[in-house]
UniProtKB/TrEMBL annotation:
This is Transcription antiterminator. It comes from the Bacteria. PROSITE patterns: PRD_2, PTS_EIIB_TYPE_2. PANTHER family: CRYPTIC BETA-GLUCOSIDE BGL OPERON ANTITERMINATOR (PTHR30185), TRANSCRIPTIONAL REGULATOR MTLR (PTHR30185:SF18). Residues 301-408 form the PRD domain. Keywords: Activator, Repeat, Transcription, Transcription regulation. Residues 410-500 form the PTS EIIB type-2 domain.
Amino acid sequence: MELSRRSIKIILKLLESESAITTRELAEIFNVSVRTIKYDLSDIREWLKTKNIKLYSQRNKGIWFDLSDVEKMTLKNELLVTQSFDVYPDQSTRVTRITMQLLMTNKFLTIYDLANSLSVSKNTVVTDLEKVDELVESFQVKLNRSSGYGLFIQGKEEDVRYLIEHLLQTNFTEYDIYNIMNQLVNPNDERISSINLGKDNLFQSTYTQVIEELSLLLNPTLLDQFNYTELLSISLRTTISVCRLRLHQPIYSLKLLNNQNQLIEKNDIPFLIMEKIFEKYDLPLLEEEYKYIASNYTKKGPIQDSLELTNRLIKDVTEEISIPFTKDHQLLTNLFAHLSLRLSKKYQFINEYNPFVEDIKKKYPELFNAVLVACRREIVNLGIRIDDSFVAYITLHFLVSLEQQEQEVIRVVYVCSTGLGVTNLIQQRIYEEVGNVEITGFASVLNADEVIKEKKPDLVISIFPIESATHPVIKVNAIPSKDDIQKIKNTVDHLLTNEDGVFENQLKQTRIKKELKNSEEFSQDLIVKGYTIYEGLLHIFNGVIKNDYSDAFLLHVFLMVHRITFDGQYDPVGNVDKDILINNKQLLLEVEQLFAENDLSVNDAELTALFQYIEL
């Protein structure tokens, strides 16, 4: 028997869960009735019987598997392959397949052709075509219907290719990615399964050829220049280019590529794979096709200042959702490093594969939309579409900042009566009504001074009119009223955001755990080392640090020394620009010598980021 797509997703959910899941929970996850889930579970049990796998269930506990990690992985991989090519695809899958079929042919396709290929009725295809219409229109492409002939898709070639890439990337499974990368790195491993990104279509056969050739070109030294998403984009775009050219659909002009020898000397991977595959299919090496394969990043104006761009993005998002991201200097540093590396790389793919997109859009829609709006407003000279993937990676930096801000709380001592029931009631009310607070202790009017001295709170809330020269105090009723709650909220917000208040220093101190003496000495040594490196770099980079970058440069160097010390350097995979390092060889040697003299081993990704601050 064959499983439905939802049944496959239910099994995958159960395999990923560390504990039993109830039918009601599954119904909520998949937005169907409990009865429907029970029908699905019946089909799942029948399917599992053929594989001698038992699905356990217990009333009031739920459903679960009792499998080893290896058994879970084996079953999961089989399902992930099946999921792409099940006999009874859901509407979303059918819409993708219909669209891909129309994009991978230069012939008219009839409703009968599509129904036959999907093994569904013509009425089903007619309904699906409404969704195809919606999908392609969002990419400025049109589904045309010609009476007596059939269906075909029409639009600008760059829009058509963008749509193809979107369809492929959004339908990748983790198994697909793992399998593709394994074939690139271990081409002779017989255990690797074949790659399936289509069903008997032009793209599938071409992509297999591209991966085989790309695996022969790559070597360990070249792999340092790429991350897996870049290799994925290069392989996909090479295949799309070949397929569309074979359908007589070039992108832009037919001008031949005239700097082939220079690209060969530079060991340029996009060109080398293009050369191999185009020769197989007897296609001309066109300049615009190379640009398409190598990057979708085409500057249309002056290069934007990455630091200025970072500041504007943070400011825009802060104003849009009223969260004080502008006060997070770590966010500024991390996002600046991300954008500097991202927008200066040789092979640039904004619309790359990103497994976080759907989760981020679903769980944090307000933040995602705020970042999207900010990016579209501020990134103006790149000649690119601001893709969901690009936005999602930037949103991740804001999520890290948001998480840190959410962890920042105001520590409160509450002075009231000492009855246990009353304190529990007050604590519950405060936690329900006010965010970002932690009641660290209750005190009576008799021991208030002692408790405040011991707990060192950020704020004192009291039903008695006490005074404190060192802590802000709010007088409230015995049972806090609505006005009292609002007063507490306002004070908490003020304490969290006020940089110049009387109690700023104490507020900071209460958030810093006291460390042992040796930790304090280590911190001092690290600060001194950071400043030593900073001064040394100022000497090496004398006169070449970009204007208005001095403050950011200082912060970056200190955080860089911290990352190196605590084994948190930037990942070298895909974040190394060999051209920058080679072209600044003398400066590079001096920088490496400086770090070596201070017992710090710095990698090429950190050096690449450092060189973003200088005029090259």
